[in-house]
Amino acid sequence: MAQKPSIPKGTRDFSPVEMSKRNYIFDTIKSVFTLHGFHQIETPAMENLSTLMGKYGDEGDKLLFKILNSGDFLSNVNDEQLAERNSTKLMRSIAEKGLRYDLTVPFARFVVQHQNEIKFPFKRFQIQPVWRADRPQRGRYREFYQCDADVIGTDSLLNEVDLLQIIDEVFCRFGINIAIKLNNRKVLSGIAETIGEPDKIVDITVAIDKIDKIGIDNVNAELLDKGISQKAVEQLQPVLTLSGSNEDKLNSLATLLANSEVGMKGIEELRFVMNKTNEIGVKATIDLDPSLARGLNYYTGTIIEVKALDVEIGSITGGGRYDNLTGVFGLDNVSGVGISFGADRIYDVLNQLDLYPEATRTTTKVLFVNFGEAEATASLKHIKKLRASGISAEIFPESSKMRKQMGYANDNGIPFVAIIGETELANGTIMLKDMNLGTQQPLTIDEVIEKLK
Amino acid sequence: MAQKPSIPKGTRDFSPVEMSKRNYIFDTIKSVFTLHGFHQIETPAMENLSTLMGKYGDEGDKLLFKILNSGDFLSNVNDEQLAERNSTKLMRSIAEKGLRYDLTVPFARFVVQHQNEIKFPFKRFQIQPVWRADRPQRGRYREFYQCDADVIGTDSLLNEVDLLQIIDEVFCRFGINIAIKLNNRKVLSGIAETIGEPDKIVDITVAIDKIDKIGIDNVNAELLDKGISQKAVEQLQPVLTLSGSNEDKLNSLATLLANSEVGMKGIEELRFVMNKTNEIGVKATIDLDPSLARGLNYYTGTIIEVKALDVEIGSITGGGRYDNLTGVFGLDNVSGVGISFGADRIYDVLNQLDLYPEATRTTTKVLFVNFGEAEATASLKHIKKLRASGISAEIFPESSKMRKQMGYANDNGIPFVAIIGETELANGTIMLKDMNLGTQQPLTIDEVIEKLK
Predict the structure, then answer these.
(1) Which of these, A51, A436, B294, B366, has the minimum number of CB atoms within 10 Å of its CB?
(2) Do A112 and A326 meet the contact criterion of CB atoms below 8 Å apart?
(3) How far is B426 from chain A (nearest CA, A)?
(4) Within 13 Å of residue A386, how many CA atoms lie on the same side as its CB?
């Protein structure tokens, strides 16, 4: 029953070389999270569909992977339901679980479910895969990792400052030059209010969010098309053409939004976050961008987006503050702020800029050539000592031709080969070959340990 | 739309404390795998059902979680199929993907799919969750992690020796006393052959595998019940009552199986693996156990099982050699041998024996109390220096009551609290409180770094 094996479209296998790079990314992010006092949690891959449905809009509901109920899943379905042939309705009867779509909704569910055990403020991070039945395309996968950090149960803006420092530190460690774009949902509300179109905030922000892509004229056309008045569009122009330093922009915004309480509150928050961050010092450029929206219906305060400066790619990290994430699960008034690193895009950026450190690839340090049973036994005793000193070592499992064994060392990027032949067996030494230099020298096991440590 | 949130039965959330313990387990196993030259891979959570179905027996097929096709999954289903109301048949038309059930079948698929990129022998490890629609019960989950290491593309018994060393090293690091039970499928074949019932090998091994649980009389009754002749059962008795040292047992077996070529081959393999392992030296007890079977239809040579000596629990690690794992995917003659650590059971054993190292819980090293904006700003600058020195530090985000802030440090097990009040602000010092000792002293930031490093 030979089959040609493959994997579902949009999913990936990761080879040892790819895993080394991915682990470097995850380990770096994880160690910065930990340095800042965040604690790791994990949630199940499967959530009840009642937890997931309705949280990502109609489109999101469609993109959820649903899991067929176990056993006779038709037992609770009546004939009329079947005759109707309505997949969407039938799904509700035959599938109760789905794969998580992001880490945010499961986190909200976690907080509400465990609210009596959790001490607030709760600083958690989570690095796990998510699944979306999106149409697969270059750079878009049906299974990918998210790396999220959130602080929940506090509305202090010091949390925003901390998250910006985390972003700065992570990309410093990666060696990726970034610009952090910053905005505040309250500024967007203030703008809509000031131009007399408070109810059209979604249309306005969706339109102005595209200004980098389609230009100011097309943004204006779209605004008019959405029924925003000519006068309002005119009033909006100063916001779209803000220039100068962040301080200049904040001052201009303060003039423009002077009559909007919520707008002024947003400016105050932005000013605090920017000033405090600058005072402590970050390496990244921080740009105030009043057109930045990102998942507007979700964020209620600070909005953050990170771009790589030296590679053309979408945002590589994003986040913001939400005031009522857990409300949908019955726990109100819990404010939180979080960021999410896009591991797959960071992977691509590090590849394109060739920024992986030399030591990323974890390999065996030394391979012992296998010349036969007596030599192998002597080698295994040496290998035991090497491993006890923390040096990864292995023996080629078969006494194959020398060329094959050396080929194995080459293929696996093993930098040293140890040879125990008749001479070495007799005098208890090891002939150590440096695969990069091509040189070799006879050493005692202690000397080998010293050299490779 | 408040809902009482919960998670699917048989699944678990992991809190920060639990994650620290789990990470300790995974990190320990991973570092030993790496020390022995194994390389990590990952495969997707979802596999095509054509890859998974038929690999785990009929019962296994039922325990696979199937994923409903996206979009209008009924579009390819005709009315007759629906009218039939046969869940098993309908499933094939509406679900093409399933969640992985173990790491072995996806690994076999991986090897065949990537056979042109892989250099053999290929030593891979994989630490990922698997999913089974088993009835949840104490200690049995529907989502759990497996930690597998396999060497594929070599039939050298040195690989068995290496895997036994890995097992020994991992449990040494954990501080868990273990016994490793060893057998060889060829010995089981030899026994069936010798007692004249070669076709009944499955019934024989299933029965004798239970000897520890049900006793020799019940094993004999089951054998007769399965149609094994009285004479054969009598001939089997010496095997069931083997005693003495491993060497004694091997000698007795060699006498009993003298006329079985395959049996003698099995004894030779066992002898090699045991002698070589003893020669290099392991701390664990190794027990030859000719009744050990474990997933018989799968293993073709060495069979390994690990028991914890100080806790009543099932096997905590197992493995063995298989000669044709990839044959089902069209790649023949690839021999492999592997082991799988049971992370969940190891977690329970470490808990019961209270063996987690003190440092397992990763916490913030020092919390800065927040007395207001000026103090917070000074604290943030100190915190930046601490983090740059690798010391995890954080500030309480709000200038709440002292009691609340100290409570946060207590709840999160933070060992030091730094206080920047008026005095400290004025003279640039830090009052550092040791939460365990209850003592405090004024220090400079450099002294704090020195102390906490």
Answers:
(1) A436
(2) yes
(3) 18
(4) 30
Which residues neighbour B218 within 8 Å (Cβ) at sequence distance 6 or greater? B210
- Chain CA centroid to CA B255, Å: 37
Shortest Cα distance from A212 to chain B (angstroms)?
A: 34
Chain B residue numbers touching A63 (CB-CB < 8 A) = 70
pLDDT at A298: 77
* Listed residue (B173, B169, B48, B155) closest to B99, CA to CA: B48
Residues of chain B neighbouring A97 (CB-CB closer than 8 A): 8
Q: Do A91 and B85 touch (CB under 8 A)?
A: no
| Distance, CA of B393 to CA of B412 (rounded, Å) | 12
Q: Which residues contact B404 (CB under 8 A, 6 or more apart)?
A: none
Contacts of A94 (CB under 8 A, 6+ apart): A68, A69, A73, A74, A77, B68
Alpha carbons B55 and B35: distance in angstroms, whole number: 32
Nearest to B320 by CA among B307, B294, B305, B302: B302
Instruction: Indicate whether this model's pTM tops 0.90.
Output: yes
CB–CB of A330 and B66 under 8 A? no
Instruction: List the one residue out of B331, B335, B14 whose CA is nearest residue A43.
Output: B14
Q: Please answer yes or no on whether B54 and A1 come within 8 Å at the CB atom.
A: yes
Reduced to 3 states (helix: H, G, I; strand: E, B; else coil), residue B153 is coil
Question: How many Cβ pairs within 8 Å bridge chains A and B?
Answer: 308
Q: How far apart are CA A289 and CA B253, in angstroms?
A: 80
Among candidate residues B70, B80, B77, B79, the one with its CA nearest the CA of residue B92: B77
As given in the structure block, the two tokens for residue B346 are: 């190891």
Residue tagged 């054969």 (tokens) = B232
Residue B386 near residue B452, CB atoms below 8 Å: yes
Q: Where are the alpha helices (DSSP H) in A389-439?
A: 402-411, 422-427
Tell which residue, A222, A337, A196, has the closest CA to residue A291: A222
pLDDT mean for each 10 residues of chain A (453 residues) = 80 96 96 96 97 90 95 89 89 95 95 94 97 88 96 96 98 97 95 92 89 91 93 92 93 95 97 95 94 80 96 92 90 94 94 89 90 94 96 96 95 95 93 95 97 93
Instruction: Give the burial string for A424-444 (b: 16+ CB within 10 Å, else e).
Output: bbeeebbbbbebeeeeeeebe
Nearest CA to A417 out of A375, A378, A384, A370 is that of A370
**d(C-alpha A340, C-alpha A178), whole Å:** 15
- ipTM of this predicted structure: 0.93
Cβ <8 Å between B96 and A8: yes
Residue B36 to residue A85, Cβ atoms within 8 A: no
Nearest by Cα to B39 from B121, B144, B113: B121
Are B190 and B262 in contact by the 8 Å Cβ rule? The answer is yes
Closest residue of A to B153, CA-based? Answer: A397
Distance in angstroms (rounded) separating the CA atoms of residues A404 and A381: 23
> How far off is chain A from B86, nearest CA to CA, in Å?
8
Closest CA to B123 of B285, B326, B336: B336
**Rounded CA Rg of chain A:** 29
Q: Are B317 and A421 in contact (CB under 8 A)?
A: no
Across the interface, of B40, B151, B329, the residue whose CB is closest to A2 is: B329
- Contact (CB<8Å) A392/B114: no
- Within 8 A of A72 by CB-CB distance, chain B residues are 87
- Please name the helix (run of DSSP H) or strand (run of DSSP E) that holds residue A128, with its range, or none: strand A122-131
Our measurement of the distance from residue A87's CA atom to the centroid of its chain's CA atoms, rounded to an integer in Å, reads: 33
Quote the CA–CA distance of A402 and A408 in Å, as a whole number: 10
Q: Which pLDDT band holds residue B296 (cuts at 50, 70, 90)?
A: low
Of B90, B329, B392, the CB nearest to A5: B329
